[in-house]
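re: that chain from earlier
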Amino acid sequence: MRTRLAAVSAVAAGLATVPVPAQAVPPANDAIGAAVVITGLGQTFRVNTREATTARSDGECVGAASVWYTYTPATDQVARFSSVGSRFDGTLAVFSGPRSRRTLVGCDERRWRDAGVEVSLSGGEKYWIALSARARGARGVLSVYAPAAQSVEHTMTLEATEVSGQLWVDLETTCDVPATGWLAIIARQRVGDHVTRSYDERSVVYCSTTPGKRHVELDGYDGLAFVEGRVSMEIRAYLGDGFTDKQLVQRTIETASLRLNARKAR
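^ sequence. v structure.
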């Protein structure tokens, strides 16, 4: 456990302010004995691992700052454990058996942010899952779900601003399985004898079944303005789920109505 200094104000006149140590508080599931219980597949847990610690008894494939979870499935099943969405380069370890005599059954300690472990679980068997950062961590995310084909969906609302000629895109993105990566947003609109075009890229730190909302303001190339009418939108999703080196590359193309809005650009 680490300590940090906190200033304490003098109570009596003439006393100097003296720094005294204040204990840094680790997360509640810092130790395996306080592991958070996973009740079933399809769950996501978020935790701040900045003050997480490590212990000699943690075992192999557990990093410097670890938090613990435990899961006892009712039936035989295949489960995926993913750290997608964590803000650190992490490792994932899955153990089975009694806490003091557990056996490592899954490990991912690749040297980049997203770790993923797929394990065949036996009904009634107890499993221990360690999410850990290689160094001092920050926000950690653990997702537990059944293997599924990765896909992504988008819902868009479009506006053109009367003052600036910008195209405003309010975009909601959902993913069937947790993923991270980036989106390319491409807009095209024919106005008279020319085509107004624009392009933008946005990072996706964490995409899940909960809609992620983004507001994008696009300027037309060469100073050309977007106007009220029909516009062709293309969304290219480049997303990874932490289990393969390949990214999902999915294109969504649709023609949408663009309505005029007199508000000024933000």
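The CA atoms of residues 235 and 252 lie 5 Å apart.
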